[in-house]
Design a protein that fits this description.
Blueprint lengths: L1 H10 L6 H26 L6 H12 L4 H8 L3 H13 L3 E6 L2 E9 L1 H21 L5 H21 L13
Antiparallel strand pairs: 1-2
Helix pairs in contact: 3-6, 4-5
């Protein structure tokens, strides 16, 4: 606890209000997304795209129809269908009959798709570890308190239509 207090004294100033924090988080999100996306494109020239990996993780959480996937990812049905076809052709996703609607098919991740998603996540985590290597131990300690707290309050404030289907549980 003393470590955190020392860090607060060292880094905190009066300009850090809740409004500044919100602005910094909004700036950080796209920066992190672009960084990871660029790295994924660099190392995966002929492998999975970042969008494919995101879809794999979404489908690992729960199988969806193509139309629900399109709605969740906020893309056209045609774009979702093309994305799914690429995943099916690679053997990472299968279509199985939807027990609730025989006209629809549920998309399910295959063991190969699960392995690919886990491999891609491992690569992204390794890349971020290297990128974050310059953090001081005090900064990592602060992040270990701050990031779970932000996740908690954001999840507490999400409800109904505000809660996208692709928010990870953990």
């Amino acid at each position: 606890m003393r470590l955190i207090i020392n860090m607060v004294d060292k880094y905190m100033d009066a300009s850090w209000t809740i409004h500044r924090l919100a602005g910094e988080l909004l700036d950080l999100g796209p920066m992190l997304g672009r960084t990871v996306s660029h790295h994924a494109r660099t190392i995966n020239k002929d492998e999975a795209t970042l969008m494919q990996v995101k879809v794999l993780f979404l489908l690992i959480k729960h199988p969806l129809t193509v139309s629900k996937l399109a709605q969740t990812r906020r893309v056209s049905l045609q774009a979702a269908s093309a994305l799914v076809q690429g995943l099916v052709e690679r053997g990472w996703v299968t279509r199985t009959p939807d027990p609730n609607d025989r006209r629809q098919a549920l998309l399910e991740v295959t063991p190969e798709g699960l392995a690919r998603a886990e491999f891609a996540k491992g690569q992204m985590v390794s890349y971020l570890v290297g990128s974050l290597d310059g953090l001081e131990p005090e900064e990592i300690a602060a992040a270990s308190i701050f990031l779970p707290a932000v996740k908690r309050v954001l999840l507490e404030n999400l409800s109904g239509d505000d809660c996208p289907d692709d928010i990870p549980d953990n």
